[in-house]
Recover the amino acids of this structure.
C-alpha cells in the first residue's frame, strides 16, 4: 500500500517536471534568452539571441554582461 502511494506520487512529480521542461523548451524556441551566473557571466544564450544580436556563441559565453 505504501509503495503504491509512493509510485503514484513519483509519477505525478515526473509529469510536473516533464510539463515544466516543455514550457522551458517552448520559451527557448520562441524568445531570445540569455542566462547568467550570480557574478553576471553569461552561461548560455539561445540561437534567437545570437541571431538578434549578431554575436556568435563563442563571443558571448563566459563574458561578463
Amino acid at each position: 500500500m505504501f509503495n503504491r502511494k509512493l509510485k503514484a506520487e513519483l509519477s505525478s512529480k515526473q509529469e510536473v517536471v516533464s510539463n515544466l521542461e516543455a514550457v522551458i523548451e517552448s520559451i527557448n524556441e520562441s524568445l531570445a534568452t540569455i542566462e547568467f551566473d550570480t557574478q553576471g557571466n553569461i552561461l548560455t544564450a539561445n540561437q534567437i539571441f545570437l541571431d538578434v544580436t549578431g554575436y556568435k556563441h563563442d563571443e558571448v559565453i563566459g563574458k561578463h554582461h
The radius of gyration is 18 Å. The chain is about 60% helix and 10% strand. The helical segments are 2-30, 47-53, 57-60.
